[in-house]
Amino acid sequence: MTGFSADWLNLRELADQQARNSALLRYAAAFASTEVDAQSVVLDLGAGTGSTFRAFEHISPSLESPLTWRFVDNDRELLEEAARRGHEGRPIETYELDLNRVEDLPLGGVRLITASALFDLVSGPFVDRLIGAVNRAALDRPMGFYAALNYDGTTCWDPAHSLDQAVLDAFNDDQVTEKGFGPALGPGACDYIKQALEGVGYSVKLAASPWKLDGKNSQLVAELIQGIGNAVQSHPELAADDIAAWLEFRLSHAAFGSCIVGHIDLLAIRE
Question: Is the sign of the CA dihedral 24, 30, 35, 41 positive or negative?
Fold first, then answer.
């Protein structure tokens, strides 16, 4: 899987937390915390520094029976940071693991699978293998998936530039290339996951969770612009001079322009 630095994850966390659909987040937290016979376990895939955990803590900080969180990531330093930032009294386990090894995921007793900004990076076959492994481990127990902040292929800039659509098209082409799991689902992630989960008995809800960025997020916007530029630099339909002109214009407006980056949150539950 393509790695992400703690700096990037920290930079985007506030925008992520503000973007998450609050209704789906509350539903997910309520479902996770209603285990009757045992301590409820949440498995967080690609946990990074623990942003999803902190989102749940913000929604439901005073659960009578705290959730046990299992953080899974292939980056030991990120896992250590996630554990360090966990709240005292909240059971946290860390697992350094390549997510491609779905057969090795610690699925025992898990009630909810979570992931943030992950499933647009994975492939259809990965999703199918994951769902199969989760269902085998669940043994007909209630099970849920909460997948937040999946990029939906849309970005709107203000002020506009004549190359915005061409750059967006090129960027979306890049989003379906190999990201470590086979050809990525990219903007089609939620549609694919929804159909796959409904096919095995889950009830699925989708909700918009766009980033809404302006001058207060100028550092994040600048990093986003640079990331888009890097992703499209080899695209055959964009000339290097055009990319350079677009980057110069966008970066010059990072401190006082605005943009909306579309994301979708998904919550799937099988009772």
Answer: positive
Query: Under 8 Å CB-to-CB from 207, ≥6 apart: which residues?
Result: 21, 23, 24, 264, 265
Q: Please, is 3 exposed, middle or buried when counting C-beta atoms within 10 Å of its C-beta (0-12, 13-18, 19+)?
A: exposed
Is residue 234 in some structural domain? no
Residue-wise pLDDT tens digits, 39-63: 689 999 999 999 999 999 888 755 5
Residue 250 resides in a domain: no
| Parent domain of 87 | 6-154+177-212+262-270
Whole-angstrom Cα distance, residue 230 to residue 220?
15
Tell me the CATH number at 95. Answer: 3.40.50.150
Residue 30 lies in a domain: yes
b or e along 169-187 (b: 16 or more beta carbons within 10 Å of the residue's beta carbon)?
ebbbebbbeebbbeebbbb
pTM of the model: 0.94
E strands along 121-257, which residues?
A: 143-158, 203-208, 211-213
